[in-house]
Amino acid sequence: MDELRFAIIHTLDKATGATAADIRTRDSVLDVTKPVVRSLAEQLAKLVGKDGSAVFWGQFGTNRREGMFPTSVQPLISDCTEETFITMSKVAMKELKDKAAAQNFATGGHVCFFAYRSQGSTFLLVAMIKERGGMVLSAELEPTEIIEIDLSKLHQAARVNLDRYGEFLAPVAGDGLATEQEAEETTEKTYLCFINRRSQADVAGYFVEALGCEKGVASGRTTKAVVTAVRAFVKSVVPIREKASAARLAVIEYMQAREDGAMITLDKIAAVVRHVVGVDLEHHVDGLKGHLNSESVQIPDEFPVSAKALRVYTRIAGKSSHWQISFENGALGVQDAEIIYDAEEQSLKFTRLPQDMVNKVEEALAARAQLPVIAAG
Question: Using the 8-state DSSP alphabet, how is residue 121 labeled?
């Protein structure tokens, strides 16, 4: 965390089985220069995405059921002041109170709000901590002591990348008619994530509903991103670098064996890669899930596989008595492609050959004196 700009804590009082909920709120922000406040913010920020918590990427809802919270967040994008921050937090508490009261088994807790900058981006984090454990609050809802906070104390949390949210809200030039690709790109703009420590099914609870969050990732984009990110990760780890292509292929084959729309989990993707690298080296894959689920890659803890996206990885193969070839569908095109097809000649032209292959081809032709002679300058 590079800069903690604002912080505030409110409390939601709700017992299991109760049909009513109450809130206690502060009217001023906390002093972010106090070590106890910064420590709380940093601990909670680190828990979002930590292995053991299911992170789901998405957007605010657009079905008019998202409530008032998304609207209250928007002023923070360009004018994150003390006043707008406090207003946003109180709107959230009103939404949480209403949703919690409507669910018998919902429970309350301390609700922490933080606006901060990290790695060049601005974030809003809303996290609920159980009333028992994690921290001690004064009567004025100011933290006086922080016990190490782990996933057992974190109830639920949502984090908004305010910069990405601003890009999402920016008007797009054009005639207003979105193409299929543009619609998918809009779905890709997953500017928020939310977690729940207990189970994936419980993520649809009142907390994320009150904040207007919805899971929303483009299955095509995610399917392709998994393939690319797995290869990049394995290639970046020196002891297993040579397994990168095999890991990529194994992940493709695993997803191709599933039906279109079938749910894929990152735990299973990691298991596939571990199998590829082998028992002796599988510990090098421990960071894969966290990497895929991170802010930079944004692969959800579970996502629907896209059969359409996987078609580019379908292999085309052929052979004659003197040669055989095999390549991915996505490498083929009629122009500006790695492999260009000439329909008139019914021939293939290979471009961007790897240097070692170029060397072997030229060596073979030179041995037969079939390379053109290049005149000396």
Answer: E
Q: What mean pLDDT is predicted for residues 309-316?
A: 83
The pTM of the full predicted model, rounded to 2 decimals, is 0.66
The residue type at 101 = A
Q: Which positions ≥6 away from 276 have C-beta within 8 Å?
A: 243, 246, 247, 250
Q: Where are the beta strands (DSSP E) in the chain?
A: 3-13, 22-24, 54-60, 109-118, 121-129, 135-137, 143-146, 154-161, 192-196, 213-215, 263-265, 302-304, 315-319, 324-328, 332-333, 339-342, 347-350
Can you say how many angstroms the Cα of residue 351 is from the centroid of all Cα atoms in its chain? 34
- Residue 114 pairs with which residues in a beta bridge? 7, 125
- Work out the widest C-alpha separation in the chain, in whole angstroms: 91
Q: Where are the domains of the chain?
A: 3-215, 219-309, 316-367
Residue 347 pairs in a beta bridge with 342
Tens digits of residue pLDDT in 272-306: 999 999 999 999 999 999 899 887 887 878 888 88
Tens digit of pLDDT for each residue in 64-117?
566 789 999 999 998 899 999 999 999 999 999 988 888 877 788 899 999 999
